[in-house]
């Protein structure tokens, strides 16, 4: 009994002290809005406690209610203005403007401090940090490159691939160790983008690429088409045959469908990654993408004039194709407002019908006619091949890339390679009635 009474006394004392503390805090300071804010009416200071307990309690309740209402309004204002002050590189909920999808740019980096050139151009041209967050995924653990990336602060998200161990490979593949590490890094980085950060699309850029003025506009405009057309599986900024003199400089807005996976600045959807990730290869991921089992008769979109340019001769490929082709790729300099253009001509049925009509209604010419500049008229012209060897000889002699991957020529659509030669449009094409690629042509 004594213990219970003691507990009651202690509780009563605590409540009494708490009650008076609340009264002191509420009445011992001026109410909100009375701190000398210019141009605003000021409330009267409440009277000090009197002997009228009921009146004091009612006044306290009114003041407390007013305080709660004020705090509620402040919280609502903070919520409404959150998008203005929330850092763009946080991994939490993203603020999305209605009708404006978020397209992260995933920069794959390793040990090249020249990643600065890539990032500087992306940041210079980026129209919105919220709609185009830049995620730099770094492999290799290279300290100087990490320092360069860190120097950008919250302008980019810096991820570090944690597994820097050597990859176990067959003895004859030891010299390809770098390709195995790249494939491992891609898998980890894409999992971060799609699974950890829950993005629905992404544009992949390697650290040795520079982008064109309309790079962001290009991908923003083509995202709806990629989402709506199941016959497409990627959008690329790259034209493998996009060297100066091999593209039409007056056709910066011209886009194509291609059966060849170009890479070098390309966009994919999360659904595609969910399809590819379970069977992602240990190495040579780009050639793996070009196999029929992965492509599944789907196409990519690519431009007439490239929206990316590679400046990295140093790499695991040891400059393969760089000196002969890549260093001469023409980077677009004209801003094309793709989001304001009608791109419905790129839908499969429409595009295929018009493309084949243009190709097979073109005048047939010989290699000698093209090489010696003896073409009459403005074109376009069709140069026909029927075998793997004839394609490779014609392509090489005309200066376009002659290699095939699973039978598909670079930039090819239904076997046709389109390019400019001496100012005329040339279609290097198989005979009419073409049906499918021959994977043995590799």
What descriptive keywords fit this protein?
8-stranded mixed beta sheet; alpha/beta; disordered N terminus; 4-stranded mixed beta sheet; 15% strand
The tally of strands reads 16
The amount of beta strand, in percent, is: 5-15%
Unreliable stretches (pLDDT < 50, length at least 5) are 1-5, 28-50, 73-97
Task: Summarize the main sheet.
Answer: 8 strands, mixed
- Tally of DSSP helical segments: 13
Q: pLDDT average, as an integer?
A: 85
Helix content: 25-40%
**Class inferred from helices and paired strands:** alpha/beta
Distance between the termini: 96 Å
What is the ordering of alpha helices and beta strands?
Answer: HHHEHEHEHEEHEEEHHHEEHEHEHEEEE
Topology:
Layout: H1 2-27, H2 53-80, H3 82-85, E1 105-109, H4 115-125, E2 134-138, H5 143-150, E3 157-160, H6 177-196, E4 201-206, E5 209-211, H7 215-228, E6 232-236, E7 255-258, E8 266-269, H8 270-276, H9 285-289, H10 292-295, E9 299-303, E10 308-310, H11 348-360, E11 363-364, H12 367-371, E12 381-384, H13 388-398, E13 404-405, E14 408-409, E15 417-421, E16 424-429
Parallel strand pairs: 1-2, 1-4, 2-3, 6-9, 11-12, 12-16
Antiparallel strand pairs: 4-8, 5-10, 6-8, 7-9, 13-14, 15-16
